[in-house]
From TrEMBL:
It comes from Pedobacter helvus. It comes from the Bacteria. Keywords: Carbohydrate metabolism, Hydrolase, Metal-binding. Belongs to the metallo-dependent hydrolases superfamily. NagA family. This is N-acetylglucosamine-6-phosphate deacetylase. Residues 44-361 form the Amidohydrolase-related domain. CDD domains: NagA (cd00854). Its EC number is 3.5.1.25. The gene is nagA. GO terms for molecular function: N-acetylglucosamine-6-phosphate deacetylase activity.
Length: 365
């Protein structure tokens, strides 16, 4: 039995001091109070972060280099940064690239650690809101294509971003029936169209405010639809560049536990259709179009606290428990509780990472 003693833990009920966390065989066995004096040097222990939309790390953009080595390198880098669960994301691309990436994840899944599967962002989006996505690859889905895609994916496709106003209801229903999380995004849907999609079962929204119909006083758009809906969730990029920090603040106040963090992070790439260039803390395409972020999940949490008026406890939930709940893994990850995986991040008082544990094993940093 391993343990970390007399710690400040972020539990589902909030911050608790003077706690021992005991873990064995990859699982948290017990969390209990410690009556010893508080260690003034002790930092904090968070659950491991969960990022449901990231394209690459450590110089490896997965769609440009779909290989076993690439996903291993991405996993290693993200683990060192405290991300103990992620979906590797593919932007709109050719069927050949999608199939190559899916084939790699299918082969790798028995070895996989923190890679939970694939998030396909496109190609079934609206070209009017394509952002950095390649227009030539965007198309409407057919039910036959979706069936073939999921058959080939064999359970590796966990999430899909699409524009519901351009897709047939039977396509969306088939994805939902096959336990794919459907996210409304890169869409010009009206308030009514977005509300219909959420009522049909579409669970979430991709990078709120970016690449979607805006909130206007005479045309409420997607943001108002997700604000008003009782269950629909949304991801948001809290880098201050994709969304102003004050807007993140407002969204968090309105949506509460329905809003979660993603990095939407990419890495520099000079090959293929997505050639991301680092410029002043962000990534752009060669034509200057804003693409992915340069964020980590920890920096997202820090930004929420420092710039968005969000409490640390809520920001941690946005980076851990809420995304875990969306993908129905909240009992095994995303929180510190007995029976959950021993995935957690140890930070010092300055909120810098000192240790990362994944299934009870410390990750070398």
């Amino acid at each position: 039995m391993q343990s970390l003693q007399n710690q400040n833990l972020y539990l589902p009920t909030g911050l608790k001091s003077q706690q021992d966390i005991l873990f064995e065989n990859g699982l948290i066995k017990e969390i209990k109070s410690n009556s010893a004096n508080v260690n003034p040097q002790s930092g904090y222990i968070f659950p491991g972060f969960i990022d449901l939309q990231i394209y690459g790390a450590a110089g490896k953009l997965f769609s440009a280099e779909p290989s076993l080595d690439s996903i291993r390198i991405i996993e290693d880098q993200l683990l060192r940064q405290g991300t103990t669960g992620f979906l590797i994301c593919l932007a709109t691309n050719t069927p050949q690239v999608f199939n190559q990436c899916i084939a790699v994840i299918k082969e790798y899944r028995k070895q996989a650690r923190n890679c939970l599967g694939l998030h396909l962002e496109g190609p079934f989006i609206n070209p009017e809101k394509r952002g950095a996505h390649v227009k030539e690859y965007i198309r409407k889905a057919s039910l036959e294509e979706i069936k073939a895609l999921l058959d080939f994916g064999d359970g590796t496709i966990k999430m899909m971003t699409l524009a519901p106003e351009l897709q047939d209801d039977e396509v969306i229903q088939y994805l939902l029936d096959n336990e794919v999380v459907v996210s409304l995004g890169h869409s010009s849907a009206t308030f009514e169209e977005a509300t219909k999609a959420y009522n049909q079962g579409v669970q979430t929204t991709t990078h709120l405010f970016n690449a979607m119909s805006p909130l206007q006083h005479r045309a409420p758009g997607i943001p108002t639809a997700v604000f008003n809906h009782p269950t629909a969730m949304a991801s948001i990029i809290a880098d201050g560049l994709h969304v102003d920090f004050e807007v993140v603040n407002v969204a968090a106040k309105v949506m509460k536990e329905r809003l979660f963090l993603i990095t939407d992070a990419v890495t520099e790439c000079s090959s293929g259709p997505y050639q991301h260039v680092a410029v002043n803390g962000k990534f752009v395409m060669p034509d200057g179009t804003l693409s992915g972020s340069a964020m980590t999940m920890l920096q997202s949490v820090k930004n929420c606290v420092s710039h968005c008026g969000i409490s640390l406890s809520d920001a941690i939930d946005m980076a851990t428990y809420y995304p875990a709940k969306l993908i129905k893994k909240e009992k095994e990850t995303g929180q510190l509780s007995a029976g959950a995986q021993a995935n957690f991040v140890v930070l010092n008082q300055q909120m810098d990472i000192e240790q990362v544990f994944y299934k009870g094993e410390e990750i070398k940093r």
